[in-house]
User: Fold EAL domain-containing protein from Rhodanobacter ginsengisoli.
Amino acid sequence: MNSGILVVAAERELRRRLFDALDQAGYPQIHSARDVAHAAILLEGRPPHPPLQLMVMVLSGDERQAQSCLEQLRRLPGGADTPLIAVLAEGATLNPAELPSGIADWLSTAQIDTELVARWRRAQRSHAGQPKPGPAEAGHEPGDYHYVFEEADSEWLIVDAQTNRLLEVSPTVVRHSRLHASQWEGQPLAQVLRFEGISITQVLADANRSWYPCQRKSAQGADVGQASVRRIRHAGNDALALMFRSDRADLRAEAALTLLSRIFASTSGVDAQIAAGRLLFDELGLDYLAVWSARHDGADAPLQMLQLWSGDDPAWPPAQLQSSLQLVLGGKKLFYRTDAKRLAAVDPLLQQLELAGFAGLPLYDERHTIIGAMLAGTRKGFGEVGIIEPVLRCAAARFAQVLELGRTREQGRAEGLVDALTGLPNRLLFNDRLDTIIREATRNGECFAVLFVDLDRFKAINDTYGHDAGDQVLRVVTQRLCSSIRASDTVARYAGDEFTIVLRHIVKNDDVLRVAEKIVQVMETPLCLDDGTELQVTASMGLSFFPDDAGDAQTLLKHADEAMYSAKHHGRNNFQMYEVSPEYAKEHGMALKSRLRHAEGNGELRVVYQPQVNTETEDIVGMEALVRWEHPELGLISPAVFIPLAEETGLIVSIGEWVMRTACRQAKEWEQRYGLRLRLGVNLSAVQLMEPNLLETVASVLRDTGLDPTLLEMEITESISIKAAPNLVENLNAMHRLGCHIAIDDFGTGAASLDYLRRLPADRIKIDQSFVRNIGVDPDDEAIVRATIEMAHRLKRAVVAEGVEIEQHMQFLRTHHCDELQGYLFCRPLQPVSFDKLLAERQRLLDVRETMPA
Ligand SMILES: Nc1nc2c(ncn2[C@@H]2O[C@@H]3COP(=O)(O)O[C@H]4[C@@H](O)[C@H](n5cnc6c(=O)[nH]c(N)nc65)O[C@@H]4COP(=O)(O)O[C@H]3[C@H]2O)c(=O)[nH]1
Assistant:
């Protein structure tokens, strides 16, 4: 019977990662709690049987705190006899070796995504009475460690503590060494492992689990690696378990990853590629490696780019006769772990080289056209297929990338599309690429960003140090830009000291901001000219987003360029995102106003929704409707910019009604679909509040949409003065009588007196985000937040905090009993489709919880 998993983590981000890791593995009943008290609420009323399947807890304190948490968890319903995995938070002072007993396993936060599920399965198995976690811990039952034998790529050798002879070895030892188990068992350890500079006795006496360089025997002689010792029990006796890790990249995933990262870090020049090929050749113990480029000029014979061979040069057969190469160039992938010799009859190359292991991989360009082939072989056969195959595939992808880049450069140079100094695409090629990217992005619904990078005061460098120095700077900047982005992104030299970048496949705008920050940082590092002069070059950058800011190349670039100028205005050495600024609005006010008149009729207005959550449960209880203007040329314009214009022109009355109607209709639809009565906040401008027929409008919207008036909450800004809006109190009272709620928005920014608050029929106060943002930064603002909450509660008003962005804000607001929270920590304002997905997901989780045994 499925009986649920409990996850306890104070930090929201960790909680989410733990939840996601378990959820993705398909475990439906996951209770996710902030702390033990929260867990107790979630499990309230649950009988102790059946027990929970697993508890995962993030530990951040010392051993004493860990012990206390553990004891509390054990008292939870169903928690007494449940396997518990501890996740050690960063900065935890706990020593993993001294965790309280009762913890089945532990991992670090960095391992959550990759390890949690595997550890849980292991804990599950061990709990079900099968072998338990092994040699890592002393004092387990005989055979405890066997599960480790099946896992990963580590090798285990079990040694009798008295005789130092081998009792058993793991199947990985047999596989990697190519020696049968019987060739190991009973052997003295000294004959199978040879340590460097230290005696076996010293190694075996080391309880600190240090790693010692050594060689392990194999059919080919020996494998170089490291070993470390653990004490275990074997068949009731003391024994030692030696873990051996080979340094060979074809045996060990870790070493293979290092190899790949070195290959990928290599630059794209011919020499560097030969060096990368050599690295692959040496680290994988290859005997043959060749990279071929298919001729794109119509000639038949492919061109050899690289060839390495460990023996004497044979008479190399011509490419046309190498049938394996021809097959690969035709698109066939070949992989023979140990039996490539059977190809010898049809391929003179394999016949001459006597390869046992052989792989042939086609090299593809971005459009998946075959542009070459990589052939790799060994005379002794390949090692771990699960490691060697992906390594070869990744290496082939790198060779393909370099081949393609070389071709583009060649072609670009021939056609005048590449900048001769930096080797980057020039403006012409960039514009062409941008058009292609827009077409692809439109087809795939992809978002991307354009960055305009301009070096600060570059002219002064040219003038002071000369043009040669300027050229050197441009080359270094090129390297720095290229090293800050991904392979799928594009950098171009747009003009003199201007560079443009396209960052593709964006999920969150934050991803782009991180890249921009990184570029600012790498630029700041001083650079050294050939003559030893040290210079510091900084850059100003502007960002625009597709499709949000514009849908065509020209406008995107124009916006990025404008944003770059704004970065210059902000003191250089920074980046800015494009936005229609209030200054722009002021300058182009008339044009914007006249366009705004048609925005509603042209269907350019949108409503987005931002969730509001209960502070304790973090469950969604309401949403705020926020308007957006999708200007056909300027992109998305913020309400902060166009609402003042709408107010000036009086257009706010009809726009406000449109927003209210759209949002009420949407809220009713969600209520019916999910049976969830979410409160809907709608902003009312002062201009609307002065309208004599506001009440009729609200009543008609409610009637037409069928939304319960008690679900509609009017948000009015605190800065509206009672004097300036003479009907304010009456209008609000009348709306209250209709059943609607009233919230005072931006609280704290105006000069509302207590009296003002008392006179307004407000149900809720929204603390302005400028105070919330300063929690943890400015004690005065913290005091204002605390006082506002206290005062509102004394007046029996509820409180919502706006702009909650980080965990620290939430903790503070929770401590001071703020009722509800709104902000990016939980969710940004969402388009209706995304909000709908959010509600559907919530519903799914609830349904799952309901199917849990009572
Ligand atoms: N930095 C930060 N910002 C956050 C966070 N959480 C929410 N926000 C933003 O804060 C604003 C909250 O709305 P507001 O105070 O009513 O402020 C609103 C509201 O006064 C006005 N507005 C929006 N829609 C309407 C409308 O339909 N009618 C009227 N009259 N005014 C509207 O425009 C203002 C700005 O709206 P938005 O740009 O949508 O900006 C929203 C929202 O996107 C956060 O964690 N960090």
In short: The chain is about 40% helix and 20% strand. The pocket of C2E is lined by residues 610, 626-627, 638-640, 643, 656, 659, 683, 685, 715, 745-746, 769, 802-805, 822-824, 829 (CB under 6 Å). The mean pLDDT is 84. The domain at 146-246 is CATH 3.30.450.20 (Beta-Lactamase).
